[in-house]
Structure formats: C-alpha cells, structure tokens
Prior knowledge:
The chain is an alpha/beta fold and 522 residues long. It has helices spanning 10-21, 59-66, 117-127, 132-152, 161-173, 180-185, 191-196, 218-225, 234-247, 290-297, 308-313, 333-336, 349-358, 402-419, 426-429, 438-444, 490-508, 518-521; strands spanning 2-6, 25-29, 41-44, 47-50, 56-57, 94-96, 101-104, 110-113, 227-230, 251-253, 258-264, 267-273, 278-280, 283-286, 319-328, 340-343, 367-370, 384-393, 430-436, 477-479. It comes from Thermus scotoductus.
Amino acid sequence: MRAVVIGSGVGGLACAIRLAAMGLEVLVLEKQDGPGGRARVHRAEGFTFDMGPTVITVPPFLEDLFATGPGNPRLYPDFPEEEGLRATERYVKLVPLDPFYRIHFPDGTHFDYKDDREHLLSEIRRLAPEDLEGYLRFEQDAKAIFQRGFLELGFTHFGSLLDLLRVAPDLLRLDAVRPLFSFVKKYFRNPKMRRVFSFESLLIGGNPLSVPAIYAMIHFVERTWGVHFAMGGTGALVRGMVRKLEELGGKVRYQAPVRRILTRKGKAVGVVLESGERIDADLVVSNADYVHTYGELLASEDRRLHGDWRLKRTRLSMSLFVAYFGFRARGDEGERLKHHNVLLSERYEGLLRDIFLRKVLPEDFAHYLHLPTLTDPSLAPPGHHAAYTLVPVPHNGSGLDWRELGPSYLEKALRYLDEAGFLPGLMDRLVYTHYITPDYFQWTLNSHLGNAFGPEPVLWQTASLRPHNRSEDVKGLYLVGQSYQPGAGLPSVLMSAKMTARLIAHDLGLERAPKGLLEARV
C-alpha cells in the first residue's frame, strides 16, 4: 500500500516515518531541492543558517520518533518514559540551553528565563518584587492547565464539536479560554512580568492579546523538558529524520511540486506534479498550508466543508521578516547576548495590535535574535558568528510591497542591533547578509498570504474548530503539521504527526491500541 506525503517539513517527515514503520510504501514529494520546509537551511560563504524553527522542546517526542522500527510505529504511549536520548543520538545531538532565553527590556535590564524555579523567583525578586506572590499563583494555575491541556489532552484528535464540548467545563474551570494576556494580568502588576509570561505564544504565531490562556501551558512545557539546540542546527535534525525514513524504506523526491490531489468517487487516489506526471497512491497526506491544500490542490467539487467561503473566513497568523547575517566576532558577544534573545520594544499591546489587527508595519519593532554560534561555532568560519534576527510583521493581506521595503528594512533591523548596543559595530563587521519576507512564505512555501504559522490559534480556531487531520471532504486524504491539530511549534507538529498516523492506522485496521484507549484518542 502506497502513501504519498506532500511536503518534507518536520510534520511530513515525522508522519512518513511512522507510516513506513507500519509497513506502508512511503514517498515524500518536496517542491524544493532539499528537505525541511520551514526548517530549511541556508548556506553561503561558510555560514550555515537555520531558516526557521530553532527552539527545540520535549526531547522525549523526538526519542519516541527515532525509536520507531519495522512494525512498531509507536503510536502509544503518548508520553514515553524518560529513557534518555539513546535512539535520538544516532541521528542528531541535542544540547540543553541555559538560559532558555534572555529577555531584554528597553531600559537595558534583562530577564534570564530557565527551568530553575529558584532562579525564576530571584529574577522576579530582582525586577518586580511586588509580583513574587502573583507568580506563585500563576505557577500553580499554569501547571493545572499544562496537566489537563497538554499531558492529558495533547494527543487527542478533536474530530467533532462534541469532543470539544466534553472538555469545555474543565477549560472553563481552569480559566483557560480567556485571552492569555488578560489571564497573565490577573497575577502580575509589573509590565515587564506581563510580557515575560505572555510572549511565548508569539513563537507559535499567536497574539498574546487573542490566544486562549490554555497557552500558559508553554511555561510548564519548557520547565518540564527544557529548551534544546541541535548541534549543526535544526537542519541536522531534519537530515536525521530523512535518514531514519530511508532506513525504514521510505523515499524523498525533491524538486517535485504537486499541482493537484487526484480523487475518484470522493477518495484520494494520487497526485499530479507540476510537470504533468501522475503518481498513484492509496492515501495522501498533505503537510502543506491549510488554505493551499484545500484551495489550490483540491478541485472545487471535492470541497464540501472546506469551500472558498470557509477558507476566506480563516484567520491567519502573522508573517515574519528574517535577516540572516554573518559577521566578524569581537569576542564579547556572549557578555550581553545568549543563544536565544528576545528584544522587546517600548510598546507591547500597541505593537501587537499593529501587526495582528491593523496589519500595518510599525515604526518600532521587537526582535527574536538567534546567535547559535555561541553554542556551536562550526556554523560559521573561524573568527565569525552566524546569526539571524526575526521580526514579526503582518501577512500579505496588509498589501505591503516587500520588494520595495525589503532592502531598507534589512538595514533598519541590523542598524538597530548595532546602535542599541546588542552588537556594537555590527554594520562595520558584516560580511554576509540575506533576508526573507512574507513573499518567501507565500511563493516559496505556498503559505497563503505569506502567513508563517497557519491559522492563528485563537479560540475559534482551536481543538475541533481547527482544521482536522483527517479530511471530512475526501476519503483517504490526511493532513499534518502546523495548520492542523493541535497547532504550530515543534512539539505540536510532532504530536500532529503521531495523531495523523494513528488515524491512518485506525482507518486501515492496522492499529493495536491498548484496550479502552482507542475510543478516547481517535
């Protein structure tokens, strides 16, 4: 039985690995000349840049994936026991980061965010002693949300509204449906602490002012398993996944963009490439953007529940401007900066409204500055650093012309890092620059309007209200990745792959679920 997977992003590769472990013949089709999707790698002049995700959390999910074997897709248990990373180390080396992030405030102060509870308390005591008691209450309530929303429900596929209604009383009791920033404001009076404990939803494309407070669980996801880095970059993780897939007999074909998903009598039967080549399949898995999958890859007559009316109503996440740059090291970069840096602006709520709601390009901006050569010097030539700085911007529904804006915005972003003192003298030390805009997400990654994270994770696009991993319109069509359940972010995408593989196993009669667990999970 053949499965065709559209896209070699992390979700597509992870799902393909589990399908190959089931014994299916798996072919992954990738538009680009290499794997990774958003996690592609850009190499130039001796520098290696991860183009996308760099924050790796929940290593046991990767261990679970790399431990799969023939006849053992490891669809259960959901949360594997802590057994070290013996299987993972065959494919990629993960190292923990300390701190997870250094959060910089405009007044020159900073907050080092890590999993050490006493350290967190000391940071709060140093910057906002009035919020120490509030943090203790936040910690207790966020942990309860984490327990219910992640540990107990994380792998649940919400296939109907009834599934959501079953858990709604618990979510209401935990106050997990109010906006995250509003939730955080209950506990913290200091503006700095409100930002520290709400910004993380931006890492999955969510506006802290709009996403439900269930995302407060991210605090405990990171505190439980830490934040890690793949030596060699996230691209090394992707290469390890490709190697694992090939060991199981799966194949990846590059420069093979899909033009259409073929159907017959309401069932997916293969795909047609842009070249006109037809590839037959018994089932199809799309790792592509939700709007692109339903709006471009499927014929209109195949879309009953996901017609144009629904696609147009989908609220999409923001996009990104990312500047990749190599520069001569001065030797003191690690004094003010860490591996992951969050550079906050004077404004917070106003800036978020500009990007997500007004869809205008603000004069000010916040950065996520990634400096991986502090951890892995091999990513740059000797005596140099490789870095990227990421700036949230509106998606292309804004009408902004990035062909005109791009060069000046690149200079503005890099000059800010120099003149604000994060990388003093940077403009004179630059040896290489490259950048991507929302146009890259739209035209290279086929992401509708250049969104960077799929449907925005607002309450009405969460759980059963988020696109499902099994198509309701076309039998034999399955979906995986950040556009679908449970959402964006590396842990969620790995969970999505496992959920989708489980649905396929169930539909094919291949599942061997523990008694009583199937009904609760499928």
